[in-house]
Amino acid sequence: MLEELRNAARKVQGERELRGLMVDCRQLMSERGEANRVAIARQLPARYGDLSDEQRHAFFERLAHDFSLDPAAVLRSAQAYAKDPDAGNLLRLTQLAEPPRQELLRGINRSAGGTAGIVAMRRALLARLEKRPELQAVDADFRHLLSSWFNPGFLQLERVDWNSPAQPLEQIIRHEAVHQIDGWDDLRRRLQPDRRCLAFVHPQLPREPLIFVEVALLPEMPAAIAPLIDKASEPVPPKQFKVAAFYSISNCQPGLRGVSMGNFMIKQVAEELQRELPQLRTFCTLSSIPGFASWLRAGAPCPGLTKERAARLVQAQATLRAHGGADPAALANAHALRKLGREATEALLRLCAFYLG
Q: Measured between alpha carbons, how far is 127 from 131 in angstroms, rounded to an integer?
């Protein structure tokens, strides 16, 4: 009985906190004084952080319903613009076609800590989308605004090395998504002079890497990933740096999923390395090939091939099976790959070329 009373009291308190948060959101939308808007916005991330998981879900539902478009007003404005497509009608239509929650998020973003708060909100929102697809429109607004606030013009490229503060180093260990870092000794090897770790940071999230890339500086193009991530390997002398091999890129902020930063980052890192080390002539990558193993297990389907190319595909499959590659699932194991002979390895490469083509 006592526990039931406590649960009821917590629920009442949570509902009270949610109502207070929504009152502040509406006040932020109606307030015209900039100083007052900033003061209100400053409180919102903390008030959101105090909500229970259930109340946070209710908060997103309120964003979906209470801060959405007015369909009738949009329709009237669209009809007015269709009848008279002048600048005034276009301006009114574009204003009405933007959900009010976008302006709410902009207001929160103007306050200290607002950007980090919005990234945290989206992280929680993303965890709910699979079961609550009706929140996708809310996520689209978050993603639209975050893509503007985290565009490359606002990001700073910083090198992470062994002398960097502990916080970004811990983030690198925690968020390495391609080749897990096995503790501080492993991290130390990846930050030696023949390695580079560079991260994008945002002025509003100091010492918080958003995304980072790892690069190995080598005398020649690598044939495998294992030697690059071997924490017992010896560093390569700087005079032998001729190749930059990109071997990992990881996102540190789940709330920024879908916000494009990776492609631009790789290009900027390549330019930065070229300026630092003019002797570099070759840039390459060692990356996994998503879906390739499943494609092999499905029989390597390639519809639409000419008879000649289809015959080469069948021959490559037969060669792989005959020389130790009968079980495609086993090929995901590095030891099994090393045991493949020359003919099987060449057949596997031909199949990969078919898959990528």
A: 9
Which pLDDT score is estimated for 328?
Answer: 67
**Residue 72: predicted pLDDT:** 94
CA distances to 134, 188, 297, 310, 356 from 300, rounded to whole Å, are 37, 41, 7, 11, 12
- In three-state secondary structure terms, 251 is strand
321 vs 324: CA distance, rounded Å:
6
Q: What is the pTM of this model?
A: 0.79
Residue 1, token pair as written in the block: 């009985």
The whole-number pLDDT of residue 263 equals 84
> Which pLDDT value is given to residue 9?
53
CA–CA dist 225, 29 (Å, integer): 52
d(CA 323, CA 343): 7
User: Quick check: helix, strand or coil at residue 153?
Assistant: helix
Q: What is the Cα Rg of the chain in Å?
A: 27
Q: Which domains does the chain have, with CATH numbers?
A: 2-149 (1.20.140.90), 154-285 (3.40.630.180), 292-356 (no CATH)
Which residues of the chain carry a pLDDT beneath 70?
1-14, 324-326, 328-337
| Number of residues that make up the chain | 357
- Residue 170 pLDDT: 94
Q: Which residues contact 342 (CB under 8 A, 6 or more apart)?
A: none
Q: Which two tokens stand for residue 261?
A: 């930063």
Per-residue pLDDT, 105: 96
Cα 191 to chain centroid distance, Å, stands at 23
CA dihedral for 198, 144, 130, 47, sign (positive or negative) = positive
The strand pair at 156-159 and 211-218 is best described as unpaired
* pLDDT of 13: 66
Segments in 130-157 forming alpha helices (H):
136-149
Whose structure tokens read 């976008």? 102
Burial grade of 248 (CB within 10 A; 0-12, 13-18, 19 or more): buried
